[in-house]
């Protein structure tokens, strides 16, 4: 353990500081496709009984009208966060008529591209803007790829904790800059070590054969309808997933917040020739918001993002520059198809210890060589993480995955113990212990367990639909209390009123609105 990490642990272990670790905040966003009884993509509109996808704070849609997204509030205890997520699922199932929430990350058998419905958000200018943005995504990346689902894990440390660390270290920067720099340092360490999460929690080693739409690939045929790689952990996070030639040259630097926001500013203000050729409109119909590398900042795809809650009308980059980093969003987690929520408390407890380690461990700047090694290690693990004797690159030298993984868990153990002290429990250490078992025995990983089921004769679709129906039964067998149901009904009704109000009070037409929006992007890129 480094001296710096030891000092930070000692400081946080002091009685006056220990309670700060129980004030970390956690939020989860879970995406999932709606499917019919046969495991086909549901082509029905977003159920009005769930509320407005535009204005509901907890139930919305992501890319497709069929791709639900459930959003929890930020809570101090991930057990509460998961309980919130469970309530949203139970409410959704009280409204889904003959439909199911698809259990894995990789999509069901999808219809032709033109049939996959893009999410609709009503006739307001902001609703139309969200729709046109998604039309642009379809043009740029195809609809199939946009139907992949995942879990996003939001995490923050309390401001007071940063303040005490800063004071103890004699750092004289202003508090906002120090906190932002420390979150960016966390992200650098996440880049170094996130391959471990893919080994432990990757759960997409196989997919429906139709997903590739006839594109060339190096996957193996498991059965007539299923493709896989024998040692893969997460095909979702491989180069089969979200790909973009335009974004290939966009590699935001995580060595400081300024260089990160500058790279995004540049991307939202730089035209990309292939998109310029398409244009923004054809015969008066909008095709994409603009012809730049990114239509908006959120189009940039990454495994982790620095975040700040935005004010109304404020752009994400502006919020980060004005008020600094508030929390991080982990975006590389697969949905575990064996779990009704796609994630459980054991995984959340381990993530907390892992992220706290990333936050407190020394985090030197990433040079280009280490940056490439981080990317290569990550891609090696998502494609062949369970291959016996797989070696990764560490400081230019090959190291066995199992060796490095155990060494990392040894370093994370004191963080898990500190979290346990602050919560008066053993939950984090037990969660870490469960991950050790997976390193010693790859058969315990979710990816291996998925393949084990498929190798017993089920196709990917049969397995996923079977799990989806089991989960539906789980949620429907324990309905919400009358009071909880009433609160969700009220929130749905309120969101529909909110959308109607937006539509009734819009000023100006959409073309003018889009023009003003584009001007804000140009100002951003200056």
- Please indicate the count of domains: 1
Q: Structural class per helix/strand content?
A: alpha+beta
Oligomer: single chain
Q: Based on CA inertia axes, which overall geometry fits?
A: globular
So what's the CATH class? Alpha Beta
**What number is the mean pLDDT?**
95
- CATH topology name, in short, is Creatine Kinase, Chain A, domain 2
**Main sheet, how many strands, which sense, barrel?**
7 strands, antiparallel
Contiguous low-pLDDT stretches (5 residues minimum) are none
Total number of helices: 19
Q: What portion of residues is helical?
A: 40-55%
Ends distance = 44 Å
Strand content of the residues, in percent?
5-15%
Radius of gyration, taken over Cα atoms and rounded to an integer in Å: 23 Å
Quickly give the CATH architecture.
2-Layer Sandwich
Give the tally of β-strands.
Answer: 14
């Amino acid at each position: 353990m480094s001296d710096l990490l030891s000092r930070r642990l000692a400081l946080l272990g002091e009685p006056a500081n220990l309670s700060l670790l129980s004030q970390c905040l956690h939020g989860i966003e879970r995406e999932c496709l709606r499917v019919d009884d046969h495991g086909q993509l549901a082509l029905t509109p977003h159920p009005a009984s769930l509320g407005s996808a535009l204005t509901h704070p907890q139930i919305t849609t992501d890319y497709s009208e069929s791709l639900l997204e459930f959003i929890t509030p930020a809570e101090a205890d991930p057990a509460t966060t998961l309980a919130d997520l469970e309530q949203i699922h139970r409410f959704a199932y009280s409204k889904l008529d003959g439909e199911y929430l698809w259990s894995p990350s990789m999509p069901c058998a999808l219809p032709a591209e033109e049939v996959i419905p893009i999410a609709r958000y009503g006739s307001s200018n902001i609703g139309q803007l969200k729709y046109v943005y998604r039309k642009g995504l379809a043009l740029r990346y195809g609809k199939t790829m946009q139907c992949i689902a995942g879990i996003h894990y939001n995490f923050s440390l309390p401001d007071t904790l940063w303040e005490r660390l800063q004071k103890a270290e004699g750092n004289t920067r202003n508090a906002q800059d120090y906190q932002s720099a420390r979150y960016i340092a966390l992200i650098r360490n996440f880049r170094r070590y996130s391959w471990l999460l893919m080994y432990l929690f990757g759960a997409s080693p196989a997919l429906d054969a139709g997903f590739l739409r006839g594109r060339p690939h190096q996957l193996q045929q498991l059965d007539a309808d299923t493709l896989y790689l024998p040692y893969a952990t997460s095909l979702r996070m491989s180069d089969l997933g979200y790909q973009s030639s335009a974004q290939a040259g966009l590699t935001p630097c995580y060595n400081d917040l300024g260089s990160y926001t500058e790279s995004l500013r540049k991307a939202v203000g730089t035209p990309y020739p292939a998109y310029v050729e398409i244009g923004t409109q054809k015969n008066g119909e909008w095709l994409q918001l603009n012809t730049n590398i990114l239509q908006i900042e959120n189009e940039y795809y990454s495994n982790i993002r620095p975040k700040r809650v935005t004010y109304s009308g404020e752009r994400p980059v502006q919020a980060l520059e004005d008020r600094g980093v508030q929390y991080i969003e982990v975006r590389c987690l697969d949905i575990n198809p064996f779990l009704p929520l796609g994630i459980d408390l054991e995984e959340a407890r381990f993530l907390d210890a892992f992220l706290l380690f990333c936050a407190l461990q020394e985090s030197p700047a990433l040079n280009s060589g280490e940056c490439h090694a981080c990317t290569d290690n990550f891609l090696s693990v998502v494609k062949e993480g369970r291959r016996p004797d797989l070696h990764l690159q560490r400081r230019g030298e090959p190291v066995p995955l199992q060796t490095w993984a155990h060494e990392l868990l040894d370093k994370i153990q004191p963080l898990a113990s500190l979290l346990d002290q602050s919560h008066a429990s053993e939950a984090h250490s037990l969660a870490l212990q469960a991950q050790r078992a997976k390193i010693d025995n790859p058969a315990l990983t979710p990816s291996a367990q998925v393949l084990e089921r498929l190798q017993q004769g089920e196709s990917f679709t049969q397995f996923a639909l079977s799990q989806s129906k089991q989960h539906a039964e789980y949620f429907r067998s324990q309905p919400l209390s009358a009071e909880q149901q009433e609160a969700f009904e009220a929130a749905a009704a309120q969101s529909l009123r909110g959308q109607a109000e937006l539509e009734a009070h819009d000023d100006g037409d959409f073309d003018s609105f889009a023009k003003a929006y584009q001007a804000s992007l140009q100002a951003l890129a200056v």
